[in-house]
Amino acid sequence: MSNAPILLTGGTGQVGQAVLRHAEKRGLDIVAPDRAQMDLTNAQSIAEMVVSESWSAVINCAAYTAVDRAETDAELAEQVNAVAPAILAAETAKLDIPIIHVSTDYVFDGTKNAPYVEDDEVNPLGVYGRTKEMGENAVRTLNPRHAIIRTAWVVSAGGANFVNTMIRLASERPEISVVNDQIGCPSSATDIAQALLSVAEHPHAQHGTWHFVNGGEASWFDLSARIFANMTQRGLTTPDLHAIPTSQYPTPAERPRNSRLSTAAIQRDFGIIPRHWHDAIDAILAERFEN
Ligand SMILES: NC(=O)c1ccc[n+]([C@@H]2O[C@H](COP(=O)([O-])OP(=O)(O)OC[C@H]3O[C@@H](n4cnc5c(N)ncnc54)[C@H](OP(=O)(O)O)[C@@H]3O)[C@@H](O)[C@H]2O)c1
Predict the structure, then answer these.
(1) CA-CA distance, 235 to 233, in Å (whole number)?
(2) Ligand 1 pocket member 8 (CB < 6 A)
(3) Is residue 121 part of a domain?
(4) What is the domain count for the chain?
């Protein structure tokens, strides 16, 4: 990678914020325009930003991530998750700039009985997953210098995510029920950011699709149990936790039952070894409660 700056989209989001933090720690020059400076629903604004500097790479962390709202807001979801990546990929390709594009486990339908590998057939269950699949396809087609990194179940100390929801509910409710029949790999935004930057910095890596999630697997119930056990150790009050099936927690968008992603390829190709999700969650809770 050249010494030119990286262009980051979604710098105010969970993963984007972690990318910014870690790029600075690595001494990388990185620019993260906000929505006012680069609106991803505006093709001209995207194109102007891409040509404004000789970027070493573009990391696309921006997305329409409201999975349930997407069901009734398909046009905007498609604009941000599919059309914007297509424009980013086409504009970067013209200038021979590599693009690192973040995608999701929701491109799969969750019916496989093992962790998904990169070339498993996709079959998204809802609008969010369908628009993310369209975004992947556009990036693949339009810029040969691409790395698509699929991740899942993103959590961090800041921002709206499952960990912070559990912490909030712990102080509001005596009991809580959490689904135990969806399994996946909780993934720290910090760890995803480090993986994205390692891929961006890799000299000859930018052509393909890889999965990055933390190690091990869990249901949402398991994740809640880990969070509450950690909080109990800190002397904090936690609610009684009950396991329920997905059928008792209906949502507008159907979720894949199996969201596990195999990380064998990113380990092999980049030497990126994800830590276990237990360690990642404990680190997030330490950041949350000790800072
Ligand atoms: N969250 C998960 O559990 C999860 C799971 C699997 C994969 N992923 C993928 O991981 C990536 C990062 O997700 P995240 O959780 O970090 O997302 P996030 O916290 O929801 O952040 C989304 C980012 O996209 C930006 N954005 C949305 N619409 C925009 C627009 N029209 N113009 C400019 N910026 C816009 C937001 O800006 P504002 O702050 O201005 O809104 C924000 O910075 C995404 O590709 C997502 O699909 C996430």
Answers:
(1) 5
(2) no
(3) yes
(4) 1
Residue 17 belongs to what domain range?
6-159+187-215+259-276
Whether 154 is in the pocket of ligand 1, judged by its Cβ within 6 Å, is yes
Q: How many Å lie between the centroid of ligand 1 and the Cα of residue 170?
A: 26
CATH of the domain at 108: 3.40.50.720
Nearest to 206 by CA among 154, 139, 272: 139
Evaluate: CB of 79 within 6 angstroms of ligand 1: no
How close is the Cα of 178 to the center of ligand 1, in Å? 24
CA distance 246 to 256: 11
Report if residue 193 sits inside a domain.
yes
Q: What is the DSSP string of 227-239?
A: HHHHHHHTT----
Residue whose CA is closest, atom 24 of ligand 1?
62
- Residue with CA closest to ligand 1 atom 34: 35
8 A C-beta contact, residue 7 and residue 50? yes
Report, as residue numbers or ranges, the catalytic residues: 128
266 lies in some domain? yes
Q: Which two tokens stand for residue 95?
A: 């200038």
13 lines ligand 1 (CB under 6 A): yes
Q: What is the pLDDT along the chain (291 residues), one digit of tens a residue?
A: 678 899 999 999 999 999 999 999 999 999 999 999 999 999 999 999 999 999 999 999 999 999 999 999 999 999 999 999 999 999 999 999 999 999 999 999 999 999 999 999 999 999 999 999 999 999 999 999 999 999 999 999 998 899 999 999 999 999 999 999 999 999 999 999 999 999 998 866 679 999 999 999 999 999 999 999 999 999 999 999 999 999 998 899 999 999 999 999 999 999 999 999 999 999 999 999 987
